[in-house]
Amino acid sequence: MATDLTALGGRLSILIEMTAGKTRDLGTPSAILSMAKDLALAFGTGVGKADQIWYDRRVIAGGADDPLNLVATLLSPITGIAVNFDLVRAFAVYNRSDETLTHSGGSHTATDAGIVVLDTGSTFQGPCKTLAKGQVLEAGGVWAAWNPLAAGWNVADGANDIFQVDNEDGSDEACFDIVIVGEST
To answer: Where are the domains of the chain?
Structure first.
């Protein structure tokens, strides 16, 4: 099913700015680091384009997992119709477990729960070469990746369509925000 959106555009950015200094007898010499990378996306398919977006705030019980099927089960937060990704162009996951927040199902009380993104239950690999262990995000951690190439990261129904997030904490619930941007089938 092609996209039900009629427009989608935006910019994915990462910015790191740091200033380092050392107090000395005659002053404080310093160095400034600035690293920035932007990926602009226009509506459509192909290089630099996307026609699907899905995002949500999720809560996972202690020791549980959250398998997200990238084909036909995630509902668009804009239209309410199922999102069908053919490829993923970019994603970001923000572990907000350390915050007290509200979400569509209620509220989350701050914990120190860590999560694992693209863990062993995932069939979608994205930027991971192996799924033996995904990316660990401690409470407050952020992980983002994007693929500007025309091929993006392939999604195939029933083969590599599960983007799984696991709660590493055996008792405390975890809360995270997730955004996935890509192209429709």
So the answer is: 45-184
Two tokens, residue 76? 């668009």
Report how far residue 152's alpha carbon sits from residue 126's, in angstroms, rounded to the nearest whole number. Answer: 9
- pLDDT (tens digit, 9 = 90+) per residue, 143-171? 999 988 888 999 988 888 999 999 999 99
Residue whose C-alpha is closest to residue 167's, from 90, 67, 73: 67
Which CATH topology does 45-184 take? Jelly Rolls (2.60.120)
Greatest CA separation for the chain: 68
The strands making up 162-167's β-sheet, listed across from edge to edge, are 65-69, 162-167, 115-117, 135-137
The residue to which tokens 């949500």 are assigned: 56
- 17/85 Cα distance (integer angstroms): 34
**Residue 62 — φ and ψ, nearest 5°?**
-55, 130
Q: Is 0.85 topped by the overall pTM?
A: yes
d(CA 113, CA 60): 10
Contact 88, 142 (CB under 8 A): no
